[in-house]
Specification:
5% of the residues lie in helices and 46% in strands. The chain is mainly β. Strands 25, 26, 27, 30, 31, 32, 33, 34 and 35 form a nine-stranded antiparallel β-sheet that branches. It has a seven-stranded antiparallel β-sheet with strand order 9-15-12-13-14-11-10. A hairpin with a 2-residue loop joins strand 32 and strand 33.
Length: 494
C-alpha cells in the first residue's frame, strides 16, 4: 500500500492561514471496498491531535482533497503589544499532517494446513497461511471472519463462509474453528479473508507533511503570484517583505505618516533561523541604529516595536540617540543579519508634526498580522448612548404586624436594573495619499481594533465606515471619516 503526495495550491511550509491551505494525495488502494483517506492534524512534533477526518476519493482521479483552512485559522491569533522584540507565538501555528487510509481489507492466504498445536493432525484445527509473508493480517482471537476461496468453494465447500479465529500463530498465519479432519487434505486452495461484519481496517500515518501557517491573508492575485518565501527573511534580498501590507512606495516619497506618539508593532518572518537578525533604522539626518530581533529558533515570527513611540532600546551605529530628533522628518526600517546583509525591503515612515487637537489613535492588525496605527487629528465628536434595562414591580409591601398590604407612593412601578453607557466617537483624519487610502481599508475590515485614549488602549469596533469627506484632486489626497464605539460598556450602579 502506498500514499503519495500530489501537491497543493500554493502550499509550502509557510502560508497564510486565512487563504486556502489545500493538499492533494493519492493511494494505490483507492479502489478497495469502503475506501477512505484518514486525515489527522497534530501539534508539530507531539501526539496532541487537533483534527481527524475521513475523506472519500475524489470523483475522476480518486485523489484526497484536504482543505485545512477552516481548521488552521482557528489556531492563530494575535500578540498583545510589547515594546521588546518577542516571539510571536500566537501569530503562527506549526503542524504535522498525517495521511492514512481505511478500507474493507482482504487478507490473502496461499493454502490451508493442519495446526499441530501439540495434537495429532486429525484432531487439530485448520490454519490459513500466507507463505510469501508480504502482507500481515490484523486479526485477533475471537474475530468473526469470512473466507472466500479462490475457486469459490468448489474444491473445499466446507472451508467457504463464516468462521472464528481461535489462534494467531504469527502475522501471516491464523487458526480457524474447523477441524482439519473435516476439511481433509487435497488440492492446494488459497483465498481471501475479511471481517464478517465488513469492518474497515485502519492504516494510520502512511505519509506525513509538516508546515507552518501565520495569521495573515493575501489578496487573490497576490496569493497566486507571491512565493511564500517572500516573507521568510532568511536570505539576502531587497524585495522580501515583512508581514505587513504597509505601503512603502519608492522610499523617496512620502506615503505613510505617523505622529511622534504613535505605536507600530511589525511582525517579521524569523522562521526558525538561528542567525542573529536586526531591525535597522535610518533617519532623515542620515544617522543609523539597530535593534535586535532575536535568534529564537523555535519561532517562525518575531514581533518588533518600530513606531515613533515604541522604538524600545536602540543601539547607535552612526550618530547619536534618539532616532527621532526635533528636525527628523522621516525614518526608514529594514531587516539585516549579523553580516550586514539586507534581508527585507525598506519601509519609510514619515513624522507628522502638524498641530494635533483632540488626537485619537486607532491601533489595528493589518491583513498580514502586523499591528499598525492611524492618528485622527482633525476632529473628535463624542456621542454617549445610555441603555437601560427595567422591570415593573408592584407597589407597596406586606405589613405582617398589621396583617395587611401597605401602599406607598415611593415604591413599585418601573425599576431600573441595569444602566450601560455606550461611547461613540466620530473621527476625521488628515489628508492621506491614495496609497494610504487603500491601506486604510485594512483598518475598516480588521477583526481587532484598539483605541488609544489618554495613553491607554481600549478595545473598540468600527460601527460606520463613513467614507470620504474631502478630496484634493490636484494633490491626490483624501480625508476619511469613521465612527468608532468602545467595545466594553461602562456600567452604572443602580
Amino acid at each position: 500500500m502506498a500514499i503519495t503526495y500530489k501537491g497543493g495550491h500554493n502550499v509550502d511550509n509557510f502560508t497564510p492561514a486565512f487563504n486556502p491551505v489545500n493538499y492533494y494525495f493519492d493511494s494505490s488502494n483507492k479502489n478497495e471496498d469502503g475506501f477512505r483517506y484518514v486525515v489527522e492534524v497534530f501539534n508539530y512534533g507531539t501526539a496532541t491531535k487537533i483534527f481527524e477526518s475521513r475523506i472519500a476519493p475524489r470523483v475522476g482521479d480518486g485523489y484526497a482533497f484536504v482543505p485545512l483552512q477552516g481548521i488552521l485559522k482557528n489556531q492563530v491569533s494575535n500578540e498583545k503589544p510589547n515594546d521588546n522584540a518577542i516571539s510571536a507565538v500566537k501569530s503562527f501555528y506549526r503542524f504535522d499532517l498525517k495521511i492514512g487510509e481505511e478500507f474493507i481489507n482482504i487478507w490473502d492466504y496461499d493454502d490451508y494446513e493442519f495446526y499441530s498445536g501439540g495434537v495429532s493432525q486429525w484432531n487439530a484445527y485448520t490454519q490459513l497461511r500466507q507463505f510469501a509473508e508480504t502482507t500481515a493480517h490484523t486479526f485477533v482471537v475471537g474475530d468473526q471472519i469470512n473466507i472466500d476461496q479462490s475457486d469459490g468453494g468448489t474444491e473445499k465447500p466446507m472451508l467457504q463462509g463464516l468462521f472464528t479465529v481461535v489462534e494467531v500463530v504469527d502475522d501471516y498465519t491464523i487458526v480457524i474453528d474447523i477441524p482439519f479432519s473435516v476439511v481433509g487434505s487435497g488440492a492446494t486452495v488459497g483465498g481471501g479473508v475479511k471481517y464478517a461484519d465488513n469492518r474497515k481496517t485502519i492504516f494510520r500515518n502512511l505519509l506525513s507533511q509538516s508546515a507552518t501557517v501565520h495569521n495573515g491573508v493575501l489578496k487573490q492575485d497576490e496569493f497566486l503570484e507571491i512565493p511564500n518565501s517572500t516573507f521568510k527573511l532568511i536570505t539576502t534580498s531587497t524585495t522580501n517583505r515583512m508581514l505587513t501590507n504597509l505601503p512603502n512606495g519608492d522610499v523617496k516619497t512620502k506615503v505613510f505618516s505617523i505622529t511622534r506618539n504613535q505605536d507600530i508593532w511589525m511582525n517579521v518572518g524569523n522562521f526558525y533561523d538561528n542567525e542573529a537578525e536586526w531591525m535597522h533604522f535610518e533617519n532623515s539626518n542620515g544617522e543609523t541604529f539597530k535593534k535586535s530581533i532575536g535568534t529564537d529558533i523555535s519561532s517562525a515570527i518575531r514581533q518588533v516595536g518600530v513606531g515613533a513611540n515604541n522604538l524600545g532600546t536602540l543601539i547607535p551605529i552612526s550618530g547619536t540617540l534618539p532616532l527621532i530628533k526635533n528636525n527628523t522628518t522621516f525614518y526608514i526600517i529594514k531587516v539585516m543579519n549579523d553580516n550586514g546583509d539586507q534581508l527585507s525591503r525598506r519601509y519609510r515612515i514619515d513624522i507628522d508634526d502638524r498641530c494635533a487637537i483632540n488626537t485619537v489613535e486607532l491601533l489595528f492588525f493589518d491583513r498580514l498580522g502586523s499591528l499598525v496605527s492611524y492618528a485622527f487629528q482633525a476632529h473628535l465628536n463624542e456621542k454617549i448612548d445610555i441603555k437601560r434595562e427595567a422591570y415593573q414591580r408592584e407597589r407597596g409591601e406586606l405589613n405582617e404586624d398589621l396583617d395587611k398590604w401597605i401602599y406607598s407612593l415611593d415604591e413599585g412601578g418601573e425599576v431600573i436594573t441595569t444602566v450601560n453607557v455606550d461611547q461613540e466617537y466620530i473621527l476625521r483624519s488628515y489628508f492621506m495619499t491614495d496609497e494610504m487610502s487603500v491601506y486604510f481599508t485594512e483598518l475598516l475590515t480588521s477583526p481587532y481594533v484598539l483605541m488609544k485614549l489618554d495613553g491607554k488602549y481600549y478595545r473598540a469596533s468600527i460601527v460606520d465606515n463613513g467614507g470620504n469627506v474631502d478630496r484634493l484632486k490636484q494633490k491626490k489626497m483624501i480625508k476619511k471619516q469613521i465612527t468608532v464605539k468602545l467595545a466594553n460598556q461602562n456600567a452604572v450602579n443602580v
